[in-house]
Amino acid sequence: MLPKVPTPIPWQLALRTQGKAKLSPRVRVGVLALQGDFLEHRQALEALGVPVVEVRLPSDLEGIDALILPGGESTTMARLLDATGMRVPLVRRIQEGMPTWGTCAGMILLAKRLREDRPTPLGVMDIEVARNAFGRQVDSFEADLDIEGLSGGPFHAVFIRAPVLLSAGPGVHILARLPDGTPVAARQGAILATAFHPELTDDLRLHQWFLDMASTHRKE
Amino acid sequence: MQKGTWAVKVGLAQMLKGGVIMDVVTPEQAKIAEEAGAVAVMALERVPADIRAAGGVARMADPERILQIMEAVTIPVMAKCRIGHFVEAQVLEALGVDYIDESEVLTPADEQNHIWKHDFKVPFVCGARDLAEALRRIAEGAAMIRTKGEAGTGNVVEAVRHMRAIQAQIRKVQNMPDEELVGEAKQMGAPLELLMEVKRLGRLPVVNFAAGGIATPADAALMMWLGCDGVFVGSGIFKSSDPPRRAKAIVQAVTHYKNPEIIAQVSRGLGEPMPGIDVRTLKPEQLLAVRGW
Question: What is the tens place of the pLDDT at every residue in B81-105?
Fold first, then answer.
């Protein structure tokens, strides 16, 4: 008998969520598209009815209201940010208050400090992060999380060679922890960081949450 | 908390998308690859061009070598085992590698069967020349596919052939009514259930990289245009005259594959690429891509 292939695979997401999309306020969201699972984020946002801009060059930052830094390899993304001259304008936009969400590698890039000596992060969020904090790929896992402020029950989270928050400054609010207390999601003003990958499942609540935050922020 | 699930196996491959996975044989080469922006390295004893030159039986690399490379970098480390050699795969899993490539570049250990990859916590990538081969590997548990190309030749023609074959077959399947899929599955030698999934998704149900013969930034960008999710570069980097520069250039070419100005810029003055082989001059027994069942 053939194995049943379970497929929580995001490129199905657009198919599954057809007709369920709730129209969000007009926020133009950029997804950093240098490397990683930017397509999965794009599909999640499009399923919520939001126009998406793939950001590869500094000029792509113009005209976006919010930005997602996707999962992928943080060392690769940091290298490409420098090669394209995007680091300085990107840091400036985030410091000026552009709502920004980093998932996994994206959270690593947001950090002020890393436990490791590479890559050089953007340094915009007052957190210290440890890369590959759970071990190698065989230690990657799925777990249900209670996320503060997110209604509708626990969030099924996928952690892949995931980072963790080692420490956070006074302006940072921890939103979710693993059962052992390890912090895996946090917010500082309009910056959101998650150690896991909401873009890999068909639960769109965190994307919706980020959009709501981004549109509220815009009105303010 | 569940480990080794299908979602985390496929998920790691999704994190590698839009990236370059580089073959390395020493910790120093692994560091050069990481510094250049590789998303992962493949730890080997010899690159395919040298395996081809050496002849004889090519086996899993020495665990000591693999551990040294794992120690040297923070990016994922992959390693190859022989087709069907599930004990080599168990050894690689015990070492803690992040992905196993059950690879035709090594000498097959079983000429009828591949490894039953669902039994492992570590994910596998397997080579394929066409849609049916890819779907058979996925049915066995491969969480990632790479088109085979012809490794160690520096000649992209076979990679192009295999990627075009898979994409053409996907387009064909998408246009078939369901009742024709049963006969098509039988004829292709592909599992029906997965063929139906391909029809629904319009792509392979796992991440698909290109491999085998990619030697220049333009080669890498060509494969991205043809529909792959990222590329493996084997001998192409460390058999060229300036590996660090070439590695960086190929990384940029994959990200900016739709931007010829950037590819032109990064391709300038890269030095000599690896020497190439006209695949038509190879004897049938020298072809690696035909290994796999």
Answer: 999 999 999 999 999 999 999 999 9
Answer yes or no: B172 catalytic.
Answer: no
Of the listed B3, B31, B80, B258, which one is catalytic?
A: B80
Partner A, chain B 143-182, Cβ-Cβ below 8 Å? none
pTM above 0.80, yes or no: yes
Q: Verify whether the Cβ–Cβ distance A136 to B98 is below 8 Å.
A: yes
3-state secondary structure of B258: coil
Q: Does A73 touch chain B (CB under 8 A)?
A: yes
Query: Encoding tokens for residue B133?
Result: 């081969």
Q: What is the 3-state secondary structure (H, E, C) of A100-167?
A: EEEECHHHHHHEEEECCCCCCCCCCEEEEEECCCCCCHHHCEEEEECCCCCCCCCEEEEECCCCEEEE
Q: Which residues contact A132 (CB under 8 A, 6 or more apart)?
A: A161, A162, A163, B74
Instruction: Please report, as a single letter, which amino acid is at residue A115.
Output: R
A137 vs B: CB within 8 A: yes
Smallest Cβ–Cβ distance between B191 and the set A2, A8, A75 belongs to A2
Q: What is the mean pLDDT of each run of 10 residues along chain B (293 residues)?
A: 94 97 97 97 92 90 98 97 98 98 96 98 98 98 97 95 97 96 96 96 96 97 97 94 97 98 97 90 90 92
d(CA B41, CA B158): 22
| Count of other CB atoms within 10 angstroms of residue B4 | 18
Q: What residues of A are in contact with residue B74 (Cβ under 8 Å)?
A: 75, 116, 118, 131-132
